[in-house]
């Protein structure tokens, strides 16, 4: 009968432990009213308990720390730290010990070992220690592969490895909305939700714009000469809570003059989010490049550069329009027509030639009009005709003005 030889035991032992900070101890309060049978016994026991906070015994708060009892959760953007120890359990000297730690993800394999050099020898009851760190950048299954190779006193080469599997979870849910303004400005609303089970301290949420834009954060207000966050003095985001951040992107001067370029820009920038949890563990996420839908202005774009907020009834007022040839190839020959409405009357010559407008070029036009009706009135009735293509572009509801009686004093 053939008997399989027993499996040879290794001389070295491998231990891998995740390094993470402790948590605050929480106690479960047990109390009762004084008229109940235990009387003040439960309350006195809580006061004598060293883990409770003096004066807040029934609030489940603790002053002690608890060491981690399990592997815990790992979230995207956090730093995974692990302690690796190889111990010589035998009574002989082991030589040429090489410890290697790799992290296998769904897309790549990373070497996390601090050193690739082999240790010459390891005496009995001695160990080789190493600490590895890795900023987690992928969601899903991760496998830590620890491999150990060594040589026995008899010259036999030995090798073994162990696998440690863990999941990386998503900490935040980020949603974005874009609003394209007529002045080429872009407003970005970012909704950030904490989808973990513990509060987060939002250290920084900023927008890194693309090369064509400057950004202004609209998440603070000025009070008594100081800049105060709109979220208050406490930057905590509770589990499943959502916070909305707002940013305004304005084209840089050298790009704002090139309407055709700005019109087609879809890449806006990326969000940089930094937070802290529990006892200060830091996490960071940076989104991919955010993209908007390019605004569809058509061939010709008309925008308002200047218009008064309030005007007097039946008194002329002035506006300034900007007309842009959004085509990158075709020249236009434009004719301006001004059509009166029930409340808005244009002052000037209708049907006048504006001349030729080169591709991606603009011209400013000063116009005069008056209103015969009080209230909030819509500026409408402009028509642009391209004589080359015999195509007419209509512009209504361009803007609104408040029309008041001349006898009413308007506060500045």
Task: For the structure shown, list the relevant keywords.
TRAPPC13_M, 412 residues, Trafficking protein particle complex subunit 13, TRAPPC13_C, 5-stranded antiparallel β-sheet, Immunoglobulin-like, 4% helix, TRAPPC13_N
Architecture overview:
This is Trafficking protein particle complex subunit 13. Residues 10-168 form the Trafficking protein particle complex subunit 13 N-terminal domain. Part of the multisubunit TRAPP (transport protein particle) complex. InterPro entries: TRAPPC13, TRAPPC13_C, TRAPPC13_M, TRAPPC13_N. It comes from Mus caroli. This protein is mainly beta and 412 residues long. The protein folds into 3 domains: 12-19 and 70-169, Sandwich (Immunoglobulin-like); 172-294, Immunoglobulin-like (Sandwich), CATH 2.60.40.1230; 300-404, Sandwich (Immunoglobulin-like), CATH 2.60.40.10. 4% of the residues lie in helices and 52% in strands. The protein has 3 helices and 33 strands. Strands 4, 6, 7, 8, 10 and 11 form a 6-stranded mixed beta sheet that branches. The radius of gyration is 35 Å and the shape is elongated. Residues 1-6 have low confidence and may be disordered.
């Amino acid at each position: 009968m053939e008997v399989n030889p027993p499996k040879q035991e290794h001389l070295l032992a491998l231990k891998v432990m995740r390094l993470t900070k402790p948590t605050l101890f929480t106690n479960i309060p047990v109390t009762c009213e004084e008229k109940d049978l235990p009387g003040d016994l439960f309350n006195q026991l809580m006061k004598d308990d060293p883990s409770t906070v003096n004066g807040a015994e029934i609030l489940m708060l603790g002053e002690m720390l608890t060491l981690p009892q399990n592997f815990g959760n790992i979230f995207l953007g956090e730093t995974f730290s692990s302690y690796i120890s190889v111990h010589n359990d035998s009574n002989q000297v082991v030589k040429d010990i090489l410890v290697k730690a790799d992290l296998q993800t769904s897309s790549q394999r990373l070497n996390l070992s601090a050193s690739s050099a082999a240790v010459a020898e390891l005496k009995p009851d001695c160990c080789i220690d190493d600490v590895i760190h890795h900023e987690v950048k992928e969601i899903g299954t991760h496998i830590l592969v620890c491999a150990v190779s060594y040589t026995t006193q008899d010259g036999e080469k030995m090798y073994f490895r162990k696998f440690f599997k863990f999941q990386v979870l998503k900490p935040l849910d980020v949603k974005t909305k874009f609003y394209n303004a007529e002045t080429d400005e872009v407003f970005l609303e970012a909704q950030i939700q904490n989808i973990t089970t513990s509060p987060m301290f939002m250290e920084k949420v900023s927008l890194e714009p693309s090369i064509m834009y400057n950004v202004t954060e609209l998440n603070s207000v000025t009070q008594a000469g100081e800049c105060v966050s709109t979220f208050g003095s406490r930057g905590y985001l509770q589990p499943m809570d959502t916070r909305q951040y707002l940013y305004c992107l304005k084209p840089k001067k050298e790009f704002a003059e090139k309407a055709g370029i700005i019109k087609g820009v879809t890449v806006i920038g990326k969000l940089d989010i930094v937070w802290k949890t529990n006892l200060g563990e830091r996490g960071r996420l940076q989104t991919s490049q955010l993209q908007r839908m390019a605004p569809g202005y058509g061939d010709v774009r008309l925008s308002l550069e200047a218009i008064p907020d309030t005007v007097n009834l039946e008194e002329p007022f002035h506006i300034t329009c900007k007309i842009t040839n959004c085509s990158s190839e075709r020249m236009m020959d434009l004719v301006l027509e001004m059509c009166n409405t029930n409340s808005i009357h244009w002052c000037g010559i209708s049907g006048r030639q504006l001349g030729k407008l080169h591709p991606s070029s603009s011209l400013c036009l000063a116009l005069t009009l008056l209103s015969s009706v009080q209230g909030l009135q819509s500026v409408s009735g402009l028509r642009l005709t391209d004589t080359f293509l015999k195509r007419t572009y209509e512009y209504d509801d361009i803007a609104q003005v408040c029309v008041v009686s001349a006898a009413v004093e308007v506060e500045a």
